[in-house]
Amino acid sequence: MTGISVKRARRIDITTQKKYGISGKILMENAGLRTAELTLKIIKAKRAMKNICVICGKGNNAGDGFVAARHLINAGANVTILLLYKADTFSEDAKYNYSILKKLKVKLKFLGEKNITRNYEDIVKQSSLIIDAVFGIGFKGKLDTRFADLFNVINASKKIILAVDVPSGLNADNGLISPVCIEADYTITFGLAKKGFYLNQGPGACGKIIVDAITFPKPLLI
Fold first, then answer.
1. Which among 171, 210, 217 has a CA at the least distance from the CA of 12?
2. Each residue of 125-137: pLDDT tens digit?
3. Of 181, 177, 173, which is closest to residue 198 (Cα–Cα)?
4. Homologous superfamily of 6-14+24-221
């Protein structure tokens, strides 16, 4: 397989919304629901406890994580959401879904700007599955040290890791990482797989790749 470029993935997303009138909120809802459904399947297959940690950034990838958390909570899972950014920095659609979680009074923990390791190690240890919803296809360049430390702890935890759309820290175009990325057991991606999954360090970071549908119109995927 070859996968598509980040440029084409963005074009599919924008055209879906502008030409076909399928809003970003609908796409986010579908992505989060598909993520939650896969999470429950993995837990059942692995006979793992429903202790789930969802780690969220601030963009639409985080919004997918918020939606997934909501569906998982409704399915009876014990979900803790770790926030790496303050709510006033979230994308519009992510903020919308975050506000729903606030009304549901779920477990939300902001890790702070510095020395965040002490704030998440116990939560990671107590989790049976970790959902990575930090960075999406737009990531490029070098990780901030605090994210590198977080990703190293997650990778060393030996927990089941599910990445949303792309493992955080992986360049979705060329498959390069700098200096570290999430090493997922599963990557659920939407519409079409991305080029970086199959290049350089991509295959080792993605684990099993599941391509799922979130109502991108079929003509855009040909």
1. 217
2. 899 999 999 999 9
3. 173
4. YjeF N-terminal domain (3.40.50.10260)
